[in-house]
Amino acid sequence: MVGNVRNLWTPQYAGPRDSISIESYISGYFDGEGCFSVAIGPRPGIRVGWEVRPCVSVSQNADRSQVLELVSGFFGCGALRPDPSDQTIKWETRSLGDIVDRVLPHFLKYPLISEKHDDVDLLAMICQMMLNKQHLGSQGLLQIAELAAQMNPSGSRRYSAEQIKASAR
Question: Fewer beta carbons below 10 Å: N end or C end of the chain?
Fold first, then answer.
């Protein structure tokens, strides 16, 4: 042992592979690589003129995509697809029902440790508003846009809450 640093790769530290909690592993994986987001985009056929699309995703280099297959099997929903923007493979689900019934309950029971847990809480609020059909009215849409703007502070958005507010019907 050098100083106070121990070898973190010993079985004493991590334990045997077959005793790893898959639930905790998945939460930790999402804490580092996952994304909880809500996209809002124009949609002329909708009464308010904007569509709300929740999404949960995680990506990985193609040579390590077995982790994404584990995620897909664990949640029993979503799909794997190549992400040409960064040459990775991505697992994602955009189904409101799957997010509410399968994904969010996991992250509420096995919460993230980083500030990303705030995104999970905001996503849960927005999904509940969508279940209550609030996204179909201009007032609810604007509330959702303001909540979504608080998510992923380092990310980028195509439309700001102000742009949505200015053109919502």
Answer: N
**What DSSP designation does 112 have?**
-
- Residue 144 contacts residue 129 (beta carbons within 8 Å): yes
Contact 80, 69 (CB under 8 A): yes
Q: What is the pTM of this model?
A: 0.85
Cα–Cα dist 147/161, whole Å: 9
| β-pairing verdict for 50-61 and 88-93 | antiparallel
Q: Which CATH class is domain 21-167?
A: alpha beta
pLDDT digits (tens, 9 = 90+) for 103-151: 999 999 999 999 999 999 999 999 999 999 999 999 999 999 999 999 9
Residue 169 vs residues 23, 42, 132, 136, 166: alpha-carbon distances, Å = 42, 11, 19, 10, 9
Question: What single-letter amino acid sits at 37?
Answer: S
